[in-house]
Amino acid sequence: MLCKNIYSTKITDKVTDKQLLIIKLIRQNKFISASQMANEVGISKRKIIDNLNKLKEGNIVKRVGSAKGGHWEIVDE
Fold it and tell me: Per-residue pLDDT for the chain (77 aa), expressed as one digit of tens each?
């Protein structure tokens, strides 16, 4: 299966720079928490959650499993 380039036109048309950073972090660690993402991106946990919800609505990322024991996946990778 081919990996999509994080900066492909398809993705960059749909997401913000902060959301691109979130996608990059998920690619690096699928078990990363919203709090860890907030520290890495430099925005609040609430804003991370808002951005994750937008990415989920756009069918770009999905959560697999429970909130504590689950992980993130990039859709169609």
Answer: 334 444 454 565 678 999 999 999 999 999 999 999 999 999 999 999 999 999 999 999 999 999 889 999 999 75
Domain count, the chain: 1
Which two structure tokens, joined as six digits, stand for 71? 């992980």
The DSSP result for 40-58, as a single string, is HHTS-HHHHHHHHHHHHHT
8 Å CB contact between 72 and 65: no
- Three-state DSSP class for 60? coil
pTM comes to: 0.81
The C-alpha atoms of residue 29 and residue 10 are separated, in whole angstroms, by 22
Domain hosting 23: range is 9-74
Round to whole Å and give the CA distance between 44 and 18: 12
